Amino acid sequence: MSDAKRIKELRDLLTRANRAYYTDADPIMSDREFDALLDELATLEHNHPGLADPNSPTVRVGGQPIAGFETKKHAVPMLSIDNTYNEQEVRDWVNRTKKAMSDDGSALFNAAGSGFVCEPKIDGVAMSIRYESGVFVQALTRGDGTEGDDVSHAVRTIRSLPLKLEPSKGITIPDVLEVRGEVYIPLSEFERINEERETNGDEPFMNPRNACAGTVKQLDPKAAADRKLGFLAHGIGEVSAPDFARSFSEFIEKTTKLGIPTTDQRRLAAGVDEILREIDRVDKLRHGLDYATDGVVIRVDSLAQQDALGVTSKSPRWVIAYKFPAERKTTVLVDVAHQVGKTGKITPRATLEPVLLAGTTVTHATLHNYGMVRQRDLHIGDTVEVEKAGEIIPQVIGVVKEERPKRAKPVLPPDTCPDCDAPLEIEPHEAIEDPTKETTRRCVNPECPAQIREKLVWFVGRRQMDIDSLGEQTIDQIRASDIPLNHFADIYRLHEHREALLELERMGEKKIENMLSSIEASKSRGLARLLGAMGIRHVGTSTAKALAKVFPDYDALLSAKPYELMPMAVNRMSGKKRMELFGLDDKLENEYETGLGEDTAEVFYAYLHSKPARETFEQFRDLGLDLSSQEYVEAGQTQDSPFAGKTIVLTGTLEHFTRPELSEKLEAMGAKVSGSVSKKTDLVIAGESAGSKLTKAQSLGVEVWNEQQLLSALAD
After folding, report:
1. Distance CA 370, CA 349 (A)
2. CATH number at residue 702
3. Residue 272 lies in a domain
């Protein structure tokens, strides 16, 4: 058999297997066999790029990331549905609908056997799926109802959704067939994702809907493939064949036969009493479904009657959603854990006496942040009210204070990081005066164990310490072995583990030699590069350079008084505030730029003087890193420079410099290099293919130099 024929055979077989597994619930092969055949197909497609097909089963694992989203117009507007919240509102809607059709409502039932269709309201992301000649061509989000984002790259990975409709006896596939429905994350998959995130130190997602919305809007389709999204159809978009279906129930029956997944919990109802019984039925079974439901959708079945009823400015008159009230119960708050995420954010998590809530036993609940903890005045031992946010994530929403035990202790936020004992930053700054306003409490130690992996990847980057052959994958590989790599300083001890490194996959002599040589060379980068590489809160590349110009070395920086880290902010303070905070009568004589303000300087000062920071820098010193400022500029040193005190903008391509190199050189000579042209710009240096910045400089009358003029000035 030729490869082309084998590719076609595998695509057909795997497509049938997907339908059998996800739509028919009747698998025709094991998972292992499916994966083996999928691997075979992927290999054949790789070897024959000319036979590529955007709807091949291999796209289910995710293809190449897209550059950005394209917004497209809906062929038929996607309107939102009005909500009801109690029995009387449902009765009122049914009565209004009947009255709109005829005096006695009998006309409502002439076009179909039953007047209404009821189905669970899936709490997912609304999507319009378009097929042309039976082939998937596009998936659009609802957007504003008129236009939506094209997220076809993500929706193609949904294994339950056919990329090519399978013909069914007696059904002619329209040239254009749009189905509307919900993309969702199955609850079993959502639980797995959150367990994985907690293991990795990430904050868990609050609910499947938000997680799903974020997934389909990622540019990399592998994210959607990894999260195993589902889809269930529940609506009609553009259909080129007017006679394809006379009723909604007929439309769903036909699309189901074509392989498009739909819920099996859809029921017909002849009147309001049957509708209310259906709402009660779904309420009792919904916690056993594998998708989140927050209500029941009730619609007129006849499509002709839907057209006659019409729409308002935002919602159809022929459909309504009944929303279930969130279930709420009381239990006892046993303890509160303080969890550190990989960004350093600390989140309080409640441990509760077990309580059955919305079909599951709840023992933990989110407390969101310490501002909310204080607003609710939580104490250990309190009887608390618990509710499931979006019917998924339990949260403490209130306290029954009259049942508080006499010896109950208030829940207090940690003063230092629970993982590394480093100082914490509280946001916003006003929360220091009013703790109920606190939204975030964050560890500022870049070597906190909860954060270190991401910080190591940043530290070795080209613009930071520029360590070759120690990229993200190599860091992960080393950390998965027995070789210690849990602190920045461990990078500079890797030479002690040369033999162990050689035993790792893809770590040959040459790569290790390059890596160790690069690590050794990075020791001489200086204080500015080191500060910028460590991921210190509020200290990026620009601030690190500014500090290095002012302080000759780490010891001078450590000895600086708090006000010396923010002279410009201090001089903007009132005399009274300067005296209260720092005991300063007058403004500071030297108003140099450090990049730090009142709030950020306080955080940086606290970190510098913390035990973890002192230990880190002492290890750097012992390991031979240069802690001096190569950018340090003594008073008056740059006065003779033609660039001293000037704001300069670089544009275009230069022959003799990269922009980062030239920026560093000019800054060392007293210049400020800016990214945009304004009236405050003193000089623009323009290379080849200079664009809008050059045009703006000319319109403002800003002085412009070419590269030859620059070289001449540097040579003088």
Report:
1. 10
2. 3.40.50.10190
3. yes
For residue 35, give the H/E element and its range: helix 31-47
Angle formed at CA 144 by CA 138 and CA 150, multiple of 5 degrees = 20
> Would the pLDDT of 24 be above 90?
no
Tell me if 687 sits within 8 A of 652, measured CB to CB. Answer: yes
Are 303 and 200 contained in the same domain? yes
Residue (of 359, 129, 360) closest to 230 by Cα position: 129
Does 32 score more than 80 pLDDT? no
217 occurs within a structural domain = yes
The predicted structure's pLDDT at residue 112: 44
On whether both 278 and 356 belong to a single domain, the answer is no
**How many degrees, rounded to 5, is the angle at CA 674 between CA 669 and CA 677?**
125
Domain, as residue range, for 363: 328-410
Predicted local confidence at residue 634, as pLDDT: 59
Same-domain pairing of 336 and 302: no
Total Cβ atoms within 10 A of residue 471: 14
Tens of pLDDT, residue by residue over 57-73, are: 887 776 666 667 888 99
Indicate the residue type of 362: V
In a domain, 22, yes or no: yes
pLDDT for res 110: 47
User: Shortest CA distance to 336 belongs to which of 393, 405, 413, 451?
Assistant: 413
Number of domains in the chain: 6
Q: Which of 107, 561, 551 is nearest to 309 (CA)?
A: 107
**Is 226's pLDDT higher than 50?**
yes
Whether residues 535 and 492 share a domain: the answer is no
Helix, strand, or coil (residue 547):
helix
Residue 109 and residue 158 in one domain: yes
Q: Which two tokens stand for residue 675?
A: 């990214």
In a domain, 442, yes or no: no
Q: Are 460 and 356 in contact (CB under 8 A)?
A: no
Per-residue model confidence as pLDDT tens digits over 517-575: 999 999 999 999 999 999 898 898 888 988 998 899 999 999 999 989 988 888 888 88
Mean pLDDT of 409-435: 89
Cα 680 from chain centre = 37
Cis peptide leading into 428, omega within 30 of 0? yes
Partnered with residue 177 across adjacent β-strands are 131, 239
| DSSP-H helix ranges across 345-442 | 370-375
The answer to whether residues 573 and 709 belong to one domain is no
Share of the chain above pLDDT 70, in %: 93
Q: Which of 5, 72, 98, 121 is catalytic?
A: 121
* Whole-number Å distance between alpha carbons of 262 and 250: 13
- Closest residue by Cα to residue 169 from 248, 264, 260, 258: 258
98 given a catalytic annotation: no
SS3 per-residue string spanning 641-673: CCCCCCEEEEECECCCCCHHHHHHHHHHCCCEE
CATH of the domain at 565: 1.10.150.20
Q: Are residues 87 and 208 in the same domain?
A: yes
Which one of 498, 522, 546 terminates a domain? 522
Which CATH number is 387's domain given?
2.40.50.140
Query: Does the pLDDT of residue 196 top 70, yes or no?
Result: yes
50 — phi, psi (to 5°)?
-70, -15
Are 147 and 198 in a shared domain? yes
Domain edge (last residue) among 503, 522, 541: 522
